[in-house]
Amino acid sequence: MPALWDKTRTTLEMIKWEHSIFALPFALTATLLAAGGLPTGRTILWILVAMVAARSAAMAFNRWADADLDAANPRTRTRAIPAGLLSRQFVLGFTCIAALIFVLAAAQLNPLTLYLSPAVLAVLLGYSYLKRVTRWSHLGLGLALGLAPSAAWIAVRGSLDPRILVLTAAVTLWAGGFDVLYACQDFEHDRSVGLHSLPKSVGIAGAFFAARVMHLGQLALLVWFGRLFHFQTLGWLGIAAVALLLAYEHSLVSPRDLRRLNAAFFTMNGVIATVFLAFVAADLWLRG
Q: Is the CB of residue 152 less than 8 Å from the CB of residue 114?
C-alpha cells in the first residue's frame, strides 16, 4: 500500500492535477451558456470526466515524449521519468488509459462528441512535438486548452455554434501568451539543444511583448464574446476583472526578473478562469 500510494502521488504530481482548473472554468462557462442555465447533472458529470481524462492524457504524454529532453534540462531533470520515479512504460500506459476514459466519456454525451474525440486527442497529444518544429508551439498549447469551451458546447447541444469559437480563440491566446512567458525560463537551454520557441527566436524582451499582444487580443475577443451573448452588467464586470488580473500577472514578472513566474503562471491563471466563470454564471442567474 505505501508503494501504491507513492506511485499515485507521483503520478498526480506528474500530470499537475491541481492545474486542471485552467481550462475547466471556461468549459463550464460554455456549458452554462449552451444550456441557458444549469444542464442535467449527468451532462455535467461526463463533461468533468472528459475534461480531467483529456488533460491527464495530454500531460502524461508530454512527460513521456519529452523524457529525454527533460533529462538534459537542469530545470526539468527532477521530473518523474528522468528522476526514475516512474518508468516510461508506466507513463505511456497511463496515457492510454486516460485517453480511453476520455473517449468513453465523450460517447456518453452525444454522437458528435464521440466522433470528434480522436481529433481532440490529436491536438492534445500532438502539441508535445510542436516545439521541435516551430516557434509557434505556444499557440498549440493554447489551442489544446481553447478547445474546452467548444467541446463543452457540443457536449450540451450536440452541435457547434460559431459564437463559442470566439471564446476558444480567447482561451487560445490566453494560454499561449503565458506559455510564451513560461518558456523564457528555458531560453538558454532551447538555444543549446535546438528546440524552437518565441523566446529563442525573438529574445526574452520580445517574448514579453508578444505575450502582452496575445493577452490584449484575448481581452478584445472576450469583449466580442460578451456582445455576442448579450452580457449584462455582471458579465462585463467579469471581463473587467480578467483585464485587471492579467495586468497584475504581468506586473509580477519582467524580462529581467522571472523569479515569480510560477505564481503568475499557475496561481493567477486559475484565479482568472474561476473569476470569469463566477461572473458569467451570476450574470445568467440574474437574467433568470
A: no
CB of 120 closer than 8 Å to CB of 12: no
CATH code for the domain defined by 2-287: 1.10.357.140
pLDDT tens, residue by residue, 229-275: 999 999 999 999 999 999 998 888 888 888 777 766 667 888 899 99
**Angle between helix 2-14 and helix 41-65 axes, rounded to 10 deg:** 90
Helix axes 88-107, 2-14, angle to 10 degrees: 70
Q: Is-contact 87 195, C-beta < 8 A?
A: no
Helices (H), ranges, the chain: 2-14, 24-35, 41-65, 67-72, 88-107, 111-130, 137-157, 164-183, 187-193, 198-228, 233-252, 261-262, 268-287
Q: What is the pLDDT of residues 195-226, one digit of tens each?
A: 889 999 999 999 999 999 999 999 999 999 99
Task: Tell me which amino acid residue 274 is.
Answer: T
- The grid cell for 17 is 492535477
User: How far from chain centre, in Å, is Cα 27?
Assistant: 11
| CA distance linking residue 167 with residue 223, whole number of Å | 10
Q: What local confidence, expressed as pLDDT, does residue 2 receive?
A: 54
**This prediction's pTM:** 0.92
C-alpha span between 18 and 266 (Å, rounded): 9
**Total residues belonging to the chain:** 288
Listed by start position, the domains of the chain span 2-287
- The three cell numbers of residue 235 are 458579465
